[in-house]
Amino acid sequence: MKTYCYNGLKVYLRPTTYANNGTLAIEMLCEDDDEFYDVITVNLGSFLQSEELAFVDDNNLPGIGQWLESNGIAAPTGFCQASGFCKYQLYEFYI
């Protein structure tokens, strides 16, 4: 398990899947106590979501997309999808 520094905390990422469609979901947990921090992806029910592709929640976690890129965890695909008043960018994950 690889750990990272996020907002001054040591965290790790746990890939899982969304129950309704089996696509990639990424949870962030604190390393010290395995406490749940947040889910960094959103399930938009898009046909583009897969086992490697997921929409990133930059709206509730500002800067998370850049953080993923700078840590070599994921890269943007260039595709965005709107849901309500928010836009979510699709990322390819390397974990």
How would you portray this structure in words?
This protein starts with a strand and ends with a strand. It has a four-stranded antiparallel beta sheet, with no helix packed on it. A four-stranded antiparallel beta sheet has the order 5-6-8-7, with helices on one face. The chain has one helix and eight strands. It has one helix at residues 64-70; strands spanning 3-6, 9-17, 24-30, 36-39, 41-42, 53-56, 74-83, 86-93. It has one domain (3-93). Helices cover 7% and strands 51% of the residues. With 95 residues, it is mainly beta. A hairpin with a 2-residue loop joins β7 (74-83) and β8 (86-93).
Task: Provide a concise account of the structure shown.
It is built from one helix and eight strands, in the order ββββββαββ.
Task: List its traits.
95 residues; 1 helix
Helix content: under 10%
**Beta strand %:** over 45%
The total strand number stands at 8
> Which parts are unreliable, with pLDDT below 50 for 5 consecutive residues or more?
none
**Arrangement of strands in the largest sheet:** 1-2-3-4
Radius of gyration: 13 Å
Number of helices: 1
Distance between the termini: 10 Å
Sketch the topology as an H/E string, one letter per element.
EEEEEEHEE
Provide the domain count.
1
What characteristic shape results from the CA principal axes? globular
Can you summarize the main beta sheet?
4 strands, antiparallel
Average pLDDT, rounded to a whole number, is 97
Specify the structural class.
mainly beta
